[in-house]
Amino acid sequence: MALKTKNKLRRALLGESAAVTLMFAAVFPSLVLFYSLAFDGASVNNKRARLMDGVNQGVLGVALTDNRNLTSANKTYNKTLLGAWTRYYLPGVTVPEEELSIAVSVKKDDKGKVVVVDYTASAQAEVRMMLSGSRDVGMGPTVAMTADSGAGIVRKNIRQIATPTDFIFVTDFSGSMKDGRIAMVKTIVDAFVQLALVQNTIGNTMAIVPYSIGTPEVLGRDNLAGGKEIGCSFVGKLKDDYRIDLDFWFNKNVSSNSSDIKRVAYDVDRLLATKYYESIVMKSISSKSWSDLISKSWCQDNGRDRSSDGRYRYSCESEPGVSIFERNDGSVVTYKKEFSDNYKKAYSLRASANSQYNVINVDTLDVKATLADGFLFSDAAITTYRHLYSAEKPFSVMCNGALPDYDYKNYKSISKPNYYPISLTTDPAAFTVFQSMTPLGGTDSANGLLRAVPVAAKGINPRKVIILLTDGEDSVALDGRGPSALSNLLIRDNNLCGVIKQGLLKYPKGTPTTAVDMYYFSIVDDPGRMKFWANNCVGSGHAIVAEDYQSLMDALTAIANKGQVQFINKNEVDN
Q: What is the 3-class SS of 367-393, one letter each residue?
């Protein structure tokens, strides 16, 4: 009996198990679908939240750089920054480039001044389903999720800069800047003067350092015909093999380094007499004769013209202190120690400067000494020599744009060079002369930047901003070097911009400067140069293409003003 009961119970349990198994088999696909959807849904929600975070961080980064989509380069930079942030927050997830978007909305007051800039961003990501993307139960292999412009909205409220600032414009004055380009720059400078010095009276100062190959200078002394002498300046320390006293050598064209010093002296004496005193000075005064130059004690008649005498027929020098001769009377001819000791150096410097356009170049510059701690940050770093008014200048390309020509007819009427530096000042009227300056010459950005450093170091404000403004490539010499090679040597290979930024925080001793910013503005779209300056000097957010007045002015206004950045709700955008 017990055995029969036990068998019945076993059969009953087996029947119930089969029923449960059948029921579980029936609902199993639904359970799989439910948990798959739950798992992938949670994953999608997590990734959507991370996408939102990435978009918010990306648009904040754009707002902090105040990069307003003014040019195609700006737009590319903004999209790249947004993409970097979204992909950082979503590693391994596809974020299509075409689905990244930054929009900028600018609001101005009744005077046309920008007061608010709104930045909005959107992005889309394609998330692959781990479970529910199967053919049987899925939502598809991938799901596209979007963070629209309501996700990333940042408002930048622009206010007048509260920190007194020294603004130094380092302005390209090469020949290619003529006409429309320099007209735009002059309009910009005038507007910026109003913004920084007139509207903002907290102690801002401003300076302009125009450059081509060297920077011309106003000397304030008369030339021999009654016009004004002008100077040519550069910043940098020459190597010992090229270091000479340019107060002595400024008018001496050494065309040979022969060991026969008499032959060298003859050539120097002849070129000075014929190419300057005869061709320029004599023709600019009334009598136009050697006898008049001799009566003024500017020249002497040596009686004959023989190179073996070590002097030309006429030896000319209006300033005895810079004559090549120690004695030059009768048959006695001796030379000053500066000439006899250094004429070979003078030859080497002239040859290098004329082949590479500038006295300061990759052969002559002592890079280590130039960038040594503290050297660049005072007027002691500036070398200014008298610029000879002659086609036979010792350095034929240096400051060649200082004057429109070198004809004797203009010698007595020279008043000042075509362009020259304007020192840091709070006086808006000081920049009136800039409107009449005329560009001419080549482009040497490294020298322009070097020349600006002592100017910037004189600033007395806590913030300094150096703005390099140009229209293109540095000049390239016939041998492929010249100013372009110097930029590579200093800016790319020796961190010139870093030296400048760090030095302006320390020098001169006791400086109040606590912040230094550098910007590179190109008024032509040149991706190669923008990349060079962004990577090696100013940083990507500070290399800016601005091809028209409004783009350039908007960018400069953003530099001159600071803003408060905040996230806002979507419905606040129009407020």
A: HHHHCCCCHHHCHHHEEEEECCCCCCC
The pLDDT value recorded for residue 46 is: 74
DSSP string, 28-69: HHHHHHHHHHHHHHHHHHHHHHHHHHHHHHHHHHHHHHT---
Which 3 state secondary structure label does DSSP give 347?
helix
CB 92 within 8 A of CB 142: no
For the stretch 405-453, pLDDT in tens is: 888 999 999 999 999 999 999 999 999 999 999 999 999 999 999 999 9
Decide: residue 321, CB within 10 A, 0-12 exposed, 13-18 middle, 19+ buried.
Answer: exposed
Show the tokens assigned to 505. Answer: 């925080």
Say which amino acid occupies 481.
R
The mean per-residue pLDDT over the stretch 557-570 comes to: 62
- Reported as a single tens digit per residue, the pLDDT across 537-553 is 999 889 888 878 777 78
pTM of the prediction? 0.74
**pLDDT for residue 31:** 47
Q: What is the DSSP string of 102-170?
A: EEEEEEE-TTS-EEEEEEEEEEEEEEEPSSTTSTTT-S-SEEEEEEEEEEEEEEEEEEE--S-EEEEEE
Could you report the per-residue pLDDT of 166-208, keeping only the tens digit for each?
A: 999 999 999 999 888 999 999 999 999 998 898 877 899 999 9
Q: Assess whether pLDDT exceeds 50 at residue 33.
A: no
As separate numbers, helices (DSSP H) first and strands (DSSP E) second, the chain gives 14, 17
Q: How many CB atoms lie within 10 A of CB 142?
A: 14
Question: Which residue, among 442, 387, 386, has the nearest Cα to 176 in the 3D structure?
Answer: 442
Instruction: Return d(Cα 83, Cα 58) in angstroms, integer.
Output: 8
**Measured between alpha carbons, how far is 51 from 45 in angstroms, rounded to an integer?**
10
Query: How far apart (Å, rounded) are the C-alpha atoms in residues 89 and 106?
Result: 29
**In angstroms, rounded to a whole number, what is the distance separating the alpha carbons of residues 211 and 452?**
10
Per-residue pLDDT, 17: 54
Instruction: For residue 61, count other CB atoms closer than 10 A to its CB.
Output: 19
Q: Do residues 461 and 204 lie in contact, with contact meaning Cβ atoms separated by under 8 Å? A: yes
Q: How much of the chain, in percent, has pLDDT values that exceed 70? A: 82
243 phi, psi to nearest 5 deg: -85, 115
What's the length of the chain?
575
The C-alpha R_g of the chain, in whole angstroms, comes to 36
Return the DSSP state at 358: S
Best CA proximity match to 448, nearest among 562, 528, 358, 363: 358
What is the pLDDT, as a whole number, of residue 14?
Answer: 54
Give phi and psi for 450, each to the nearest 5.
-60, -45
